[in-house]
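Quick one, T. Sequence first:
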Amino acid sequence: MKKQSGFTLIEIAIVMVIIGLLLGGVLKGQEMMTNAKIKRLANDFNGISAATFSYLDRYSSFPGDDPNAATRWGAPVVSGNGNGVIANGERPDVWEHLRSAGLIAGTGTINPTHAFGGSITVQQNGAGITGIVICMNRMTGKTAEIIDRQVDDGNGNTGEFRQTVNSAIYSQNATNLTVCKKL
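Structure tokens:
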């Protein structure tokens, strides 16, 4: 009599259950990592807002627009014109002023990056919002929508958190959105 070789149905079922558990664990882990990054993005918006208002309270000017920054910290820090507007030419100086004041980490005028690898900027007007805004680029539609629901009204075209694309609905397939939040 020949001995049969192969796997029994029970052995195959056990392997399938193990594979399913592994896949479930990996997918849940990825979801947890994404959620942690989203929380960091929301914290970045809040932290930069807090640093900017701390600077305003301490020096009576917005960072980047401070007319006394060069006198206060010396070269290479550049002063703004003090008109209450963060003009395009003053945008890089926002970071240098905040860093020189010890309100955020780092040195120089380079834009910080967020958890998904995009740039963070502070500027005058953006995404249909008038006034000083904090903007982040390289955001997916899904991520932008989640953050909007956490910090605002969930509508990409209204409120204090908006996408630069003129649409109330976030495109779930978008991979390079820029979103802005009113300071």
